[in-house]
Amino acid sequence: MTTKTGDARKPQVKLGKKAVKKALKKHRGRLATVAKELDCDLSTLYKFLKRKPKMQAYRELVREQTIDSVEDILVQDAINGKPYAITFYLKCQAKHRGYVDRQEVDHSGQVSANLKVTEIREALDEIRKLGSNAILSIATGNHDPGNIRSNGKPVLGNGAASSNGKRRTS
Question: Which of 21, 103, 112, 168 has its C-alpha lying 20 to 30 A from 78's C-alpha?
Fold first, then answer.
């Protein structure tokens, strides 16, 4: 069938319960594969299942059975010492024992951040006023917080070279 715009669409198919049920079981509830076998649009199959709650329940049953089968294989592989299966199983089933890639935090409270843009800008301005020499001395740990000159250059300890390269004495 061709529409006015020229795109080819599958003709409307009347789906039978037995055919859909058989295809759902064969393809383990995967609707795209079922629709392909029944030669119908996926949207048609979705609409069919929406109108037939028992058929939708059957699909869910088939999918649960598939999960059980795959889970059995995974557990057997883990028991047989296959590293992928051991790792996957522990990451999924033993989180409560610490087998996790990342720590999951359950937070039921409120999180708030009271950052004021003006305070951040003022802090950045102060840092800029210090100058690169002062920032470098702070970063390297060669800094006494009370010894910053008005020009932004640090005052170093006794006998050390000052910012102009001459040795200073107290």
Answer: 103
pTM of the model: 0.50
Q: In terms of residues, how long is the chain? A: 170
Where does the pLDDT of residue 19 fall: very low under 50, low under 70, confident under 90, or very high at 90 and above? very high
Q: How far is CA 145 from CA 21, 104, 134, in A?
A: 78, 39, 10
Indicate if the pLDDT at residue 157 is higher than 70. no
CA angle 135, 136, 138 (to 5 degrees): 65
Cβ–Cβ < 8 Å for 34, 16? no
The per-residue DSSP string of 86-123 comes to: HHHHHHHH-GGGT--SS------S-------HHHHHHH
